[in-house]
Amino acid sequence: MAITLACDVYGTLINTHGVIEQLQKTFSNGPDSAVDVVKFSTLWRDKQLEYSFRRGLMKSYLPFSICTRDALRYTASVFDVSLTEQQESELLACYAVLPAFDDVSDALKQLNEAGIRCFAFSNGTAAAVEGLLSNAGIRDYFDGIVSVDDLQTFKPNPDVYHYFIKQAKADIDQTWLVSSNPFDVLGALSVGFKAAWIQRTTAAKFDTWCLGDDKIEPTITVDGLPACAAYLLGNKG
Predict the structure, then answer these.
(1) Predicted local confidence at residue 36, as pLDDT
(2) Which residues are the active-site residues?
(3) Are 9 and 126 in contact (CB under 8 A)?
(4) Pairing mode, if any, of strands 194-198 and 220-222?
(5) 8 Å CB contact between 142 and 122
(6) d(CA 145, CA 167)
(7) pLDDT tens-digit series, residues 110-136
(8) What is the pLDDT of residue 235?
């Protein structure tokens, strides 16, 4: 059976720091002009993921967009910023039009032309991911979208990785998760996927994580999607 890729979306294909431009506009004037927008964006993203983990563990599911909204409100409180309803709406709207990383389109094209099946696999709803990938100009490279929303939980719940296999009609031994998120890589490896960790910056570190006495490591670690594609195409079959 052909290789199947489960491509994480937020932070892997799509640059979540695409919100920085809007943050700069929001805080450009007035008492909030001193806000460090990079730190704001980073905390917003970190809390977004933390809230998804919490909701998954608590079995208190709400869509990823609600985790995003609540994380924004928390981050604003940490930075002592009072967002108006319009400012909040404008910032949240950015998540529908975030850009793809510069290296993504050409790498996906290579994989597509080589016959490797690619699916977007995301915490976001299918509709949100559909719109996001279409806006970024990369939707046509995917055979489909698999959303954890169908199961009302979030990564790294093992159920979502098994659900991916079922929806993609894939052989787990030939399935690769592609993600820049270590928690996602660990979740996939723990159920039998292979996994490529996209280490987009040297500052990013992989979690030290063990299963019994064995340390869990990504199948491969690469600095971007082109290197991942090169490895997969070089080892195809």
Answers:
(1) 92
(2) 8
(3) no
(4) parallel
(5) no
(6) 9
(7) 999 999 999 999 999 999 999 999 999
(8) 79
